[in-house]
Amino acid sequence: MRIKSIALALTNGLVCAAVPANAARVVTAIDADLFDGAYTFAEQGAGFTFGFNGDYFGGGPVTVSTSTGGQVNTIFGQPTTNFADGRGRPVTFGPSMQYADFASATPIRFTNGDNFIGLRAVTATGTYYGYAFTTNNVLNSVGFENVADRVVTAIQGVPEPASWALMLGGFGVIGTAVRRRQRSTVAFA
């Protein structure tokens, strides 16, 4: 009876954990090597083009240009990054940050290593916040909120809730199997 209760609780936990905490964030894997050429995508009609100029020590190796309402997070009027520390600390993008549009390819400073670059799409129906995640010259992924005027949070290196649910479920199944195996041992006199 106790195993059934544990299994039921685990199943309920899996169902609840499988729903992401921030269900409106949509992350798209890109994995584009910018060394091979520029990569262009649109979000809510706003255009973003990421490229590579090879300048690791000057302005930054990754470049960006925007069109039709696309904007990039800036500091001192230049595109900037938010460094990923690898410890799962969140980076949040929203209306409190500065954004600007860039008609031509502009270097994003300090884009060596892992970086989050804040993006926003300004449309007639509202402003959509997002980010690009890069590693040196590779555009790994892009994440956007699909709800207007809502902040977006990016976390590197932390599994999504659905991944945690699968992992915990696997541990539960293994624990149940081990427990059943211990009970079915036969003792000879």
- The structure class reads alpha+beta
| Tally of contiguous helical segments | 2
- Biggest sheet layout: 8 strands, antiparallel
User: How many domains, in number, for the residues?
Assistant: 2
> What is the number of beta strands?
14
Distance between the termini: 30 Å
Q: Indicate the percent of residues in helices.
A: 10-25%
SSE string, helices as H and strands as E: HEEEEEEEEEEEEEEH
Low-confidence stretches: 1-23, 157-164
Roughly what is the average pLDDT, rounded to an integer? 80
Radius of gyration using CA atoms only: 22 Å
Strand fraction: 35-45%
What's the shape?
Answer: elongated
3D architecture notes:
This protein is α+β, with helices and mostly antiparallel strands and 189 residues long. The chain has 2 domains: 1-20 and 160-189; 23-157, no CATH class. Helices cover 21% and strands 40% of the residues. The protein has 2 helices and 14 strands, in the order αββββββββββββββα. It has helices at residues 2-17, 161-183, and strands at residues 25-33, 39-43, 46-52, 62-67, 70-75, 78-79, 82-83, 91-93, 99-100, 106-108, 114-123, 126-135, 138-145, 152-154. The strands form 3 sheets. Strands 1, 5, 6, 7, 9, 11, 12 and 13 form an 8-stranded antiparallel beta sheet that branches. Strand 2 and strand 3 form a beta hairpin. Helix 1 runs antiparallel to helix 2. The longest helix is centred in the C-terminal third of the chain and has 23 residues, at 161-183. The chain is elongated and about 85 Å long. The two termini are 30 Å apart. The model is unreliable at 1-23 and 157-164 (pLDDT under 50).
